[in-house]
Amino acid sequence: MLGIFKKKISVCAPFDGRTMDMTEVRDPVFAQLMMGDGCALIPASGDVLAPVSGRVELVAGTGHAICLKTEEGLELMIHYGIDTVKFAGKGFEVKAAVGQQVRVGDLLCHADMDFFKKQGVDLTSPILVLDSNQFAVVNKQLGKDVTAGEPIFSVVRK
């Protein structure tokens, strides 16, 4: 009977913004869920906060992406903006380090939204589950204005 219930892991908004379905992201890699399922946000702020508690597994050298792993084994990526990688780190001030333990709401990075807007960058930011073969995304909060720390979707082990 205990196996019937699966623990849900809440994934919170890493910044204030508006949620949208991954299939609406203007990058086919994300829209076709090639990297995993989740939710995208159009950010209203540049501070990127931890959406889950866990360990920092990866910080892209360019600062545009950070991966976290929870104690349940969930691997999650925060990818700030589309094509922000091409700026080679300009516009990002990373605050987290690989191996660091973080809690929901801890500052991971600061993105200079004004810089990216002046460059005409699409700031749509996917928050995705990298191990979709082990975890299912449920309870997506789509088309909503959210504040940092507010749940945007949940994840359960398959």
UniProtKB/TrEMBL annotation:
Q: Gene3D superfamilies from the xrefs?
A: Glucose Permease (Domain IIA)
Q: Which UniProt keywords apply?
A: Kinase, Phosphotransferase system, Sugar transport, Transferase, Transport
- Major subcellular site: cytoplasm
UniProt xrefs under InterPro entries? Dup_hybrid_motif, PTS_EIIA_1_perm, PTS_EIIA_component
Its BP terms in the Gene Ontology are:
phosphoenolpyruvate-dependent sugar phosphotransferase system
Q: Which residues form the PTS EIIA type-1 domain?
A: 27-131
Q: What's the superkingdom here? A: Bacteria
- Give the molecular function GO annotations: kinase activity
Which locations, inside or outside the cell, does it occupy? Cytoplasm
Mention any one GO cellular component term assigned to this protein in its UniProt record: cytoplasm
> Which stretches are transmembrane?
none
Q: Which NCBIfam families match?
A: PTBA
Listed PANTHER family = PTS SYSTEM GLUCOSE-SPECIFIC EIIA COMPONENT (PTHR45008)
Protein's name in the database: PTS glucose transporter subunit IIA
